[in-house]
Amino acid sequence: MFTEQFYNIAHLGHEITLWILVLLSIFSVAFIFERFFTLRGVKNSSEKTNIRIQEALQSNNLVEIEDLSRDRETFEGRALAYGLRHAKTNGANGLEEIFNSYAITERPRFERYLNFLATVGSNAPFIGLLGTVFGIMDAFRELSTSQGDASAVMLGISKALVATGIGLIVAIPAVIAYNYFQRQVRGIFQSLEGVRDICIALAKTKKVN
Known about the structure:
Blueprint: H1 2-58, H2 62-69, H3 75-90, H4 95-110, H5 114-144, H6 150-204
Helix pairs in contact: 1-2, 1-5, 1-6, 2-3, 3-4, 3-6, 4-6, 5-6
């Protein structure tokens, strides 16, 4: 009785898993494009800000660094604002904790949708494999009623393998995008470490007024 019910589930399961994979692929592509353009914009602004910071350090122009801290549109500008404000009142004490807290609050914004991509990348092949299992079960059941016509089961198995193929097609771009975006995020937060070191150095040399 239970086996018969499971066969009925398998008959629909193959199609259901295909639709699940299609939906996952649509969301994955949308999130990949969203993260690509968002992180590219942040990276471009970070590169420009880092160039200005380097130029200010080379010319020992502390006024330029304070001007950068007023730019609340950039990741580094906000970090400078927090760091310099703390350094003016407390010196170097607690500066690292301030930057660690800032990183913790900002990281979810940069890592948005990345957990979804990681989940799709690790589970889409299994969803596809489940669809293939359902498809093969249905194909062999059809063989039992087709009076030994092997062409029917071959066609059924070939259709069943489509689910595994789609699962891999969905998973591979998600994994590649996840790894790429993780590197982007690490690069962005490396620039935060440079801003932190600048604030600590200014606080220790008492050049923050």
